[in-house]
Amino acid sequence: MLNDNHDFNETLCKSIRSSLNRLSESQMSKIITELCDLFNNYPRASVRSHLIEEICNLIECTQINRHTKIGWLHQELAICIICIQIMLHHLFQSIPLIGYLIESIIFRLFPINNNNNEMQLSSNGICTYSIFLAYLYRFGVISGTLILDILKAYIRDCDIGKVKAAHFITIAVGVNLRKSNLNVCQEIIQQANFELEKHKLQNFEIAFELEGLIQRLSEKRSMEECVTRSLHLQKLIRVWTKGNSHVRLCVCVCVFHVYFYVL
């Protein structure tokens, strides 16, 4: 019986992994169909759990640096998950896939037990999860409140990995955040300027990231290629969901709401 269960889980994980490893704009429609079909062929809770785990594994092992196209895989992955959620909703399957995924990522970024070494993320892990969340916001799935709360928390901690992640977030969606809540963005800029004054003569790496963040949150428009591509992908959602309307999927939460909900 235990072997049967292990084989079942292994088969399901291999199917999910196979689909995610082929994820691209050209394969998007096929991948969405494959992953949606799993919810019909396997217990839904198991599919959801394994899909979230494989998504997190893929995100965490993706290397982020300024010499690559920032967040292109994250854009495709975010769009794929959104389309799956829309298709499941259309099929009358109320599976809160995105809500559980966001919750899982938040626990990885802000572990309750900070002494648990297994939960400590690398600098790259923090950056790559943060960019993925930023694109979920960019595509209208989560509230800007969550992203702004994350930015505040990162700058408050002023750890190089978190400040770098904050800078990457603003590269991807800084213009959108400014348009949605200028007042909070101004508060974050003030917070970043305060930290910049403390670190500019002591830690040039942190100072560089803070300067970049301040610049991005101050811009009214962006010419970044990742911003242009996100607009392109967003227009294709109706194509990949077979014309279904974009169901309101916004998860209006902030970091601390997630903490209290889980506790």
UniProtKB/TrEMBL annotation:
GO terms for biological process: ribosomal small subunit biogenesis. GO terms for cellular component: nucleolus. One of its GO terms (molecular function) is RNA binding. It comes from the Eukaryota. InterPro entries: ARM-type_fold (IPR016024), CWC22_splicing_factor (IPR050781). PANTHER family: CELL CYCLE CONTROL PROTEIN CWF22-RELATED, NUCLEOLAR MIF4G DOMAIN-CONTAINING PROTEIN 1. This is Uncharacterized protein. It comes from Schistosoma mattheei.
